[in-house]
Amino acid sequence: MKEVNLGQIEEAVRMILAAVGEDPNREGLLDTPKRVAKMYAEVFEGLGKNPEDELTALFNEMHEEVVIVKDIPFFSMCEHHLVPFYGKAHVAYIPRGGRVTGLSKLARVVETVARQPQLQERITATIADTLVNKIQPHGVAVIVEAEHMCMTMRGVKKPGASTITTAVRGLYHEDPQARAEVFSLMRG
Predict the structure, then answer these.
(1) What PROSITE patterns does the database record attribute to this sequence (predicted)?
(2) Which range marks the domain in which residue 144 is found?
């Protein structure tokens, strides 16, 4: 993981507070720069990590049918506005040659990918590509549903609007019927 410069973040937060007309030395704000710096270190802990490294548990199990982990909660930060977006990821794959991974590892991939300045479209594609590269399944399908605070609290101001992105690889890219079936299972 890349080293986070907490002191530099603290100074930047003090500058932002002063720039918006606040007094960074006011009692309620004295520790805010330190808290924000710790928060950014946590929120961006995926920087410098390779999500493929999360797929360490690989097992030989002669199962070549769909495996789905649904409703994996995540949060990320919009790289355009540095405000949060959050939602759920649904990940499906069809093992090839009996090569399966631990179910929790799929959630760890989602977490690692989401914990950096991101775009939802990139999160979705990166999760799919990570599975293809590491476990070489017959097919991968990923659906990500999220609410973006950049649309909720600023700009268009539409709370509750959700964005859905998908990524399909292998069999799910080639076979529309298989894609429809797995999407139905993932969303059902």
Answers:
(1) GTP_CYCLOHYDROL_1_1 (PS00859)
(2) 53-186
